[in-house]
Specification:
The complex is a heterodimer of chains A (about 400) and B (about 110).
Chain A lengths: L9 H4 L8 E2 L6 H10 L5 E6 L8 E7 L4 E7 L5 E5 L14 E3 L4 E2 L6 E2 L5 E3 L18 E7 L2 E5 L8 H5 L1 H5 L9 E10 L3 H8 L5 H4 L10 E2 L3 E2 L3 E4 L4 E5 L9 H9 L14 E6 L3 E6 L6 E11 L2 E10 L5 H33 L5 E2 L6 H14 L8
Antiparallel strand pairs in A: 1-21, 2-11, 3-4, 3-6, 4-5, 5-10, 7-8, 8-9, 10-11, 12-20, 13-14, 15-16, 16-17, 17-18, 18-19, 19-20
Chain B lengths: L23 H10 L2 H11 L3 H8 L12 H20 L14 E3 L1
Helix pairs in contact in B: 1-4, 2-4
Classes of the chains: A alpha+beta (about 400), B mainly alpha (about 110).
The complex binds FE2/S2 (inorganic) cluster and fe (ii) ion.
The site of FE2/S2 (inorganic) cluster (FES) has 9 residues of chain A, from loops.
Chain lengths: ~400, ~110
C-alpha cells in the first residue's frame, strides 16, 4: 500500500506539461465549441457502446451524436458483423430508426415512404419502385460510418479517413487492457444526467480525487488513503499519447459503515474474476469523452464507464454505466447493489458541482484554472485537446 | 404491497411489507417519500437479521428464488437503498445533490 506523499511528484515525471494555469475559455466559448465539433469529435475514435449491447444478428442501437450533428445506427448483421451507419434514409434523408434500441426482423422501414433496409444496411425494398427513374438499389444502401471494436467496446470515427487505427489510437491503454475480461461483467445499470455544463467541465470534475474528502465528506468518508489523514493523494499516474490513467489505494485502516462491513462478508462469490488494475481504483480517460473506471472488489473486480456527450457549449449528457459479474447469489447481488448505491449518491453530488463550476466559469470572473500536481491529468487532457484544436496558438482565430 | 407474507423465521418483518419493491425506481421513491423515523424503524428491524435473511436466500440460486422468498429479497434491496440515509446522512436525502429525477435510470 504505497501512496505518494512526496510533494509535486508527477510534474517531475512529466515536466513537458509545465505547471502554469490552464485557460478556461475552452469551456465557455461558443466559437471554441463549434471548432471542437470538427477538430476533436470528427478526428477521434468515439466509444458508442459494447458488443454485448447487440449480441444477436439484427440487434441494433442508435446513438444521437449531437456534437457531430448526426444519429448513428449500430447494427449486427446476419453475418454477425457489427457495422455503423448514418441513421439516414437514402430516399430523402429522413431519420430512419427512431427507437433507442431493438432488433431488425426482416427490414428496417423508413417512416416516410417505407424504403426498407436489411441488417447489413442494404436497401431491400422501395414501394412503387417502377415509378422511379434509373433506380439502382444496390448503390443506395445506408451511408457507412467507420466502425471498429477494441476489447469489446464499439467505436466510430466520423472523419473522412482516420489517421490511426483504433488499436494504434488506444496506444498504451491497449497494452494495459490486452485480453481484459470485460466480457465477464454485464451491463447492469445505466444512468443519464442532462447537465447545464460544458462536457469538459463535467469530465474535469470527475477526473481527479482531490475533491473526494471535501465534496463527498458525508457520502464517501475515508475510503482511500489520505496524506496526514486529510488529503487524498494519488498512488499512480500514467500519461499516454492521447489518454491518461490515475489510481488510488484503499485505506485499510478506515472503518467501513456497518452495512459496508456486512456486505464484504455476505458476498460469497467464488468467480474471482480480475481486471488488470494499477491501483485499487483506476480512472482511465480515453480521449476525448470516454472513461473506464475499475474497482478492486473482494471477490471480483468491477468496472464502470462514463461518456460525456456534448449538446451545446454549456450543455452535455453524462452517461454512466455499471458492469458487474452476473450475480449467482443474493449476497453477491446485494453487495453489488450496495456499491452501486454508494457510488450513485456520490455522482449525484458530482452533478451539482458540474453546474456550479459552469456558472462560475460563465461569469468570466476568472480566466484560468489553477491545477495542483494531483490534477496533472486534467492538465494533460487540456494539452491533448489543444494539440487537436490549435486554438490558443492561433489556428482557431 | 403491504400485507405481504414472509417465510417462517422472518415473519417479524411483515409490518414492513410496503418496502418489498421490485424496482430501483420504486425503492428510491419510497426512501425519498419516507420520514427518517420510518426509515430508521425499517433499518432497525431488518439490519440485525440481514445475515440470516441472506443465508436463507442463498439456499437458492438467485434466478430461481421461490415465490415466497421474493418479497424478502426485495426487502434486502430496499435496506441497501436506505443504508446511507441511516448510517451516513441521518436524512433520507443526499446532502448536496441534484434533484433525484434528473439522475435518470435507463432501463
Ligand atoms: S425519406 Fe425514407 S422513404 Fe422517403
Ligand atoms: Fe466526485
Amino acid at each position: 500500500m504505497q501512496t505518494a506523499t512526496e510533494n509535486r511528484r508527477w510534474s517531475k515525471e512529466y515536466p513537458e506539461l509545465g505547471t502554469g494555469p490552464v485557460p478556461a475559455e475552452s469551456c465557455i466559448s461558443p466559437e471554441y465549441f463549434e471548432l471542437e465539433r470538427e477538430r476533436v469529435f470528427r478526428r477521434t475514435w468515439l466509444n458508442v457502446g459494447r458488443v454485448d449491447d447487440i449480441p444477436n444478428a439484427g440487434d441494433f442501437f442508435v446513438r444521437e451524436l449531437a456534437v457531430c450533428k448526426t444519429s448513428i445506427l449500430v447494427i449486427r448483421g446476419k453475418d454477425g458483423v457489427i457495422r455503423g451507419f448514418h441513421n439516414v434514409c437514402s430516399h430523402r434523408s429522413n431519420k430512419l430508426v427512431w427507437e433507442e434500441r431493438g432488433t431488425c426482423r426482416g427490414a428496417l422501414a423508413c417512416h416516410f415512404h417505407s424504403w426498407g433496409y436489411n441488417a447489413q444496411g442494404q436497401l431491400t425494398g422501395v414501394p412503387d419502385e417502377e415509378n422511379f427513374h434509373d433506380l439502382d438499389k444496390s448503390k443506395l444502401g445506408l451511408t457507412s460510418v467507420t466502425t471498429d471494436i477494441w476489447e469489446g467496446f464499439i467505436f466510430v470515427h466520423l472523419g473522412p479517413q482516420p489517421q490511426e487505427t483504433l488499436t494504434d489510437y488506444m496506444g498504451g491503454v491497449a497494452e494495459q487492457f490486452k485480453g481484459a475480461a470485460f466480457h465477464k461483467r454485464h451491463l447492469t445499470h445505466t444512468y443519464k444526467v442532462e447537465e447545464q455544463a460544458n462536457w469538459k467541465v463535467a469530465l474535469d470534475a470527475q477526473n481527479e480525487a482531490y475533491h473526494l474528502p471535501f465534496q463527498h465528506r458525508y457520502s464517501f468518508p475515508g475510503m482511500f488513503v489520505l496524506k496526514d489523514n486529510r488529503y487524498l493523494r494519488l498512488s499512480g499516474v500514467k500519461l499516454y499519447n492521447h489518454h491518461a490513467v490515475w489510481s488510488t489505494t484503499y485505506n485499510s485502516e478506515s472503518t467501513p459503515t456497518p452495512t459496508g462491513a456486512l456486505m464484504n462478508q455476505l458476498n460469497t462469490a467464488t468467480t474471482n474474476s480480475r481486471l488488470p488494475m494499477l491501483g485499487d481504483f483506476d480512472f482511465f480517460v480515453i480521449f476525448p469523452n470516454f472513461v473506464i473506471l475499475q474497482f478492486r472488489g473482494i471477490e471480483d473486480d468491477y468496472y464502470m464507464t462514463y461518456n460525456f456527450w456534448p449538446l451545446a457549449v454549456d450543455r452535455c449528457i453524462w452517461e454512466i454505466k455499471f458492469h458487474f459479474p452476473p450475480a449467482e447469489t443474493a449476497g453477491q447481488r446485494l453487495s453489488q447493489e450496495y456499491l452501486k448505491h454508494r457510488i450513485c449518491d456520490v455522482l449525484q453530488e458530482d452533478a451539482v458541482a458540474h453546474e456550479t463550476l459552469q456558472t462560475g466559469l460563465n461569469s468570466r470572473a476568472k480566466t484560468h484554472l489553477i491545477l495542483q500536481d494531483d490534477e496533472i491529468q486534467i492538465r494533460h487532457f487540456h494539452t491533448v485537446l489543444e494539440d487537436y484544436m490549435g486554438f490558443f496558438n492561433g489556428r482557431g482565430h | 404491497m403491504a400485507g405481504v407474507s414472509l417465510p417462517e423465521p422472518f415473519q417479524s418483518l411483515e409490518p414492513f411489507g410496503a418496502w418489498a419493491l421490485a424496482t430501483e425506481r420504486e425503492r428510491r421513491a419510497k426512501r425519498l417519500s419516507s420520514s427518517m423515523e420510518e426509515i430508521q424503524a425499517f433499518y432497525d428491524a431488518l439490519f440485525p437479521q440481514l445475515e440470516a435473511v441472506v443465508a436463507y436466500l442463498d439456499q437458492f440460486p438467485l434466478d430461481q428464488l421461490p415465490a415466497e422468498a421474493q418479497p424478502l429479497y426485495y426487502l434486502t434491496l430496499s435496506l441497501v437503498e436506505v443504508t446511507s440515509a441511516v448510517e451516513l446522512y441521518h436524512n433520507p436525502h443526499i446532502f448536496e445533490a441534484i434533484e433525484p429525477a434528473r439522475f435518470r435510470r435507463v432501463e
